[in-house]
Amino acid sequence: MSISEHEAKVLSDFEAYEAEVATLRARVAELERELEGMRQRARAAEAQRDEAVSRSHESLTESVRAKADAARLREAMEALVDRIDFVSQHDEYRAVWECAQLHRGPYRGPTYEHAFNAARAALVSAPNAEPTP
Question: Structurally, how many domains does the chain consist of?
Answer without folding.
Answer: 1
